[in-house]
Structure prediction request, 621 residues.
Amino acid sequence: MMTSKNILQYRIPENLNLNNRQNNRLLYIEKEILEAVATGVEPQRILDSLCHAAESIVENSSCSIMLFNSSRQSLYVRSAPSISDDAIEQLNGLIPGPEAGSCGTAVYSEVPVYVKNTTIDPRWINLQKFASNFDIAACWSHPIKAKDGLIMGSFALSSNEQREPDNFQKRVLDVVANIAGIILQREIQEQALWELAHHDLVIGIPNRILLNQRLKHAIKQSARQNQNLALFFIDLDNFKTINDTYGHKTGDKVLIETSKRIQSCIRTNDTLSRYGGDEFVLLTENITDCYNIGLIAEKILNAFTKPVYINDKEIDVTPSIGISVYPDDGESADVLLSNADTAMYQAKTNGRNKYICYKPELTYNIQNKLKLEAELKTALLNNEFILHYQPQHLSSSDSSLSVEALIRWQHPKRGLLYPVDFIPVAEQSTLIKEIGKWVLQESCRQGKVWLDRGLKLNKIAINISAMQILKGCHTQISTILNEYQFPAEKLEIEITESLMVQQNKEVLTELHLIQSSGISIALDDFGTGYSSLSQLQLLPFNKLKIDRSFVSDIPGNKNDEIIVKTIIAMGKNLSLTVIAEGVENQEQADFLLKEGCDVLQGYLFSKPLSVAGLEKELNII
Prediction:
């Protein structure tokens, strides 16, 4: 166990009377400890040294200081430099009471407890196993009190010998408990002063001083980890009018409510500070996408759509928000704050109650994404999505039809949109779950129609997002198959290789359940996600789908030729069907068929077609 270095020197003159040596040693320890407190030595070091000192005076003893937790319901070990980590772990959480050992009983009764024999003393009845495991034969404990008499915890001396304390040893307990109380009170006072200096007096949140400290630390952390952070400079619109109309006390209550509303929009590890007056600054770290910045800003704006009610007064409060991002908008605290402030004033100039990013193009991109998300929600409600189907060409003589279902968005203003135009935003906003469910339902519905018409349908393949394969995914798919009476063996789901590389236990469990129900699973975009052969042998899928990036330059590109040959050979060795997508010319098809590829898909055979177009192309109307 790691312990703090002992700060005591025990400087006791050699010429002292030996009979008074113990008393003088105790006096010198008191003096040195109080000097350490006065000179600002870190409290934990002092408490550890205090325990070492008591152990040096009372031979064959181990010391511990236990304190109440924040709720004052149980005790935890604050200092015990000579006690094992296992013992400390078992002591933590001790609830004071009449049968809670020496420490718990001393705290409960608020008087010293001297236990000579832990094996028979009723106060140790619930800690017999602990005493036996850690060879505690005797234990003396003294409550630690604050100046006002409030019990803070206990100081204890334990031994592996059964014994009672003499008068001097009782005095040691009393003196050390008193010194510990002084140290702990000093620590509480210093913490209170620190809080006072670093937190706003009106609202209680971090002030400008603490924000600057955290911001500088966050910048260093972000630089090391190559991450982004964002600053939101938030200013209340027309706050002076609120103060002038209702008074400063009401204004303070508005500021408190403002803080609460902003805090309801952010993560617990984000820092919201009052920068001054009606200005707040929010620091958010680990920003992975500019889209998330816009979501936070929109949440904050939405939090103020309802008026603030103070003393039965209805007060409209709106914020203007300026945003700067590290490192694009600055690499120092001062520059980031200045740029966020500049962006905030631009937001006010542009009409208030809105947000502006320091770089206008970032605001434009964020707002476009947010607009697209809103339009996607409307598209689901208005049934604006459609499916196109691309046939898959079988190298065998099998005449059955396999198709991949590909989503399209019939946008009311922009026309037909492809997945690349909207799926990334859908995945970031979690709308992909609802969209993916619609694709599955529509594919099963259409597949059932074709089967009822007598079409020899082999498979309908659909793409599944990583966000869809969560606990219960198998149940949802089974429910939809039953609802549309579409056979499970006719459905194929395609998942990306990057999802499989993660090997999430929950995902793998769902995939095994899906496969066991008769649904086949294809590994899409194979070759781009760095799967190992050992992974391929263990993961539940039936097909490999060669990514189009490896097909586009064959024959001719030797590296791509080698990769394609390797994937086909790997699939054969694992008894997997191999599909190549993006086949656009006969040379590509010939190469793939020669190497033994089972299925070809691409514009050489057919582009993705609407239901009517596919039925006309294949004469299945």
